[in-house]
Design a protein that fits this description.
Blueprint lengths: L7 E7 L2 H9 L8 E4 L6 E4 L1 H4 L9 H9 L4 E3 L3 H15 L6 E5 L2 E6 L7 H16 L3 E6 L2 H13 L6 E3 L3 H9 L11 H9 L5 H5 L3 H7 L2 H10 L18 E11 L2 H21 L2 E12 L10 E12 L2 H15 L6 E13 L16 H13 L41
Parallel strand pairs: 2-4, 7-8
Antiparallel strand pairs: 1-6, 1-7, 2-3, 5-6, 9-12, 10-11, 10-12
Helix pairs in contact: 4-5, 10-11, 12-13
Length: about 425
């Protein structure tokens, strides 16, 4: 009887994801130093290798490099989350063509499990994954393959650190695992932060192999069960749970933004919070969830020490869990009326769902009718998914660009999620 091959786990991670999304549709940016800015064009949150080579650090305020931008020595783009979200969906869809077992870990990375696959050369299979993602989406990715999640992450670390690998590393061999762990600092192991690294180094554990050689039970006594699992994973024992679909299994859903300019009127604050609440409701419906509690907050700019400061927040409750935008907007209006104070310059607001449950769980109420999503909500979601975000939206959100909208002075087109911004190919 033939022996079933062990499960192999691949870790796939898009390189400089935000920047790469722009380069797909703006090929002139390839090879150029490019940075993506945070909300309101505040600071740099994503960099290409070319920008890193110019010693421009992460979180550098934009005003400090504006001179380089004006002289065309670097290129800058505002955050374009509709584009990033759609490109992420395309990326994950391609990965799903290789195996049904895909765990989406973040917007730009995922684990793939190959259980029962008879593949002779895993490195070549990794190159096939890399090639197909590049061909079908335009995104460059790194692929690490091994027998556990931690080792697969370690393999991808090597794929990105050592250009000779071509962005793909097969770490299924025990001998290769030990060789790589021997030259990898312990701080590069997935799950080890700065404080833990310092504690480990104090005990003489300086590389990944040092950690793998520790007795798991001893590490658990000195640290915790999380570190014990890391040791076991480095030894080739798969013990981290497989959480397929975990991205949608959230305990809270939040939508919060800093305003483009200070806002003083209640009407504008009401419109901003209503917009955030509407987006949070849409996210919740997409995840087939509902909630009975939410928190809204408004605040001034805490960094403006000379200005008067105020922070107001309130917990909102419904008698029954609901995913209805209409039901929650009534509560939002009441909530803003209670916490808004005249005379302050507000700079940020947010809406957070709490006590989220699955729509299949229905706790009835003796005195209230159900607050489930109505037909109008479903129609609105379908239209917005097809034609673009906020094609239909509640009137309270407003219809014209407002001061509380984010500053996005370097925003590119959405390309894939808006009919009016689809790229046009000119044949000559």
């Amino acid at each position: 009887m033939s022996q079933t091959p062990p499960a192999i786990i691949a870790h796939c991670d898009a390189n400089c994801f935000y920047c790469s999304c722009h380069r797909v549709f703006e090929p002139e940016l390839r090879g150029q130093p490019l940075g993506v800015l945070s909300n309101n064009d505040g600071c740099i949150i994503a960099r290409t290798p070319e920008l890193k080579a110019m010693n421009i650090a992460m979180a550098t305020p934009f005003f400090k490099v504006k001179g380089l931008f004006n002289s065309r020595k670097i290129y800058i783009r505002s955050s374009n989350y509709p584009l990033y979200g759609d490109m992420s969906d395309r990326f994950m869809t391609v990965l799903g063509s290789f195996t049904p077992d895909v765990e989406v870990y973040s917007i730009d990375e995922a684990f793939l499990r190959f259980d029962g696959f008879s593949i002779a050369d895993w490195a070549e299979h990794g190159k096939l994954i890399q090639q197909r993602v590049g061909q079908w989406t335009g995104l460059p990715i790194g692929v690490g393959l091994s027998t556990t999640k931690v080792l697969a992450k370690l393999a991808n670390y090597a794929a990105k650190r050592y250009p000779a690998t071509g962005g793909v590393v097969d770490l299924t061999s025990v001998a290769r695992q030990k060789k790589l762990m021997e030259i990898t600092p312990v701080g590069e192991v997935w799950g080890i932060g700065r404080r833990l690294r310092l504690r480990l180094e104090e005990k003489g554990i300086r590389c990944a192999l040092d950690l793998a050689n520790q007795e798991p039970s001893r590490i658990r006594k000195q640290f915790s069960i999380a570190e014990e699992r890391l040791v076991k994973e480095l030894r080739g024992e798969s013990c981290l749970p497989w959480e397929e679909g975990s991205v949608g299994n959230k305990h809270t859903i939040m939508c919060s933004r800093s305003f483009g300019e200070p806002v003083r009127s209640k009407k504008e604050v009401q419109a901003a919070v209503a917009t955030y609440a509407s987006r949070a409701c849409e996210k919740m419906r997409l995840q087939n969830k509902k909630a009975s509690q939410a928190m809204l907050f408004i605040r001034t700019n805490p960094f403006e020490e000379k200005s008067e400061q105020y922070y107001g927040n309130l917990i909102l409750s419904l008698p029954q869990a609901s995913d209805s935008t209409q039901a929650w907007l009534k509560k939002v209006r009441e909530g803003v009326n209670r916490i808004f104070r005249e005379g302050y310059a507000y700079r940020k607001a947010g809406f957070v769902f709490l006590n989220i449950s699955d729509c299949s769980i229905n706790q009835g109420d003796l005195f209230e009718s159900g607050q489930s999503s109505t037909g109008s909500m479903k129609v609105m979601d379908q239209i917005n998914q097809r034609f673009g975000r906020e094609v239909l939206k509640p009137a309270v959100s407003g219809f014209t660009p407002a001061r509380w909208h984010m500053k996005q002075q370097h925003l590119c087109s959405r390309y894939t999620t808006c009919w009016n911004e689809i790229p046009v190919v000119q044949c000559r």
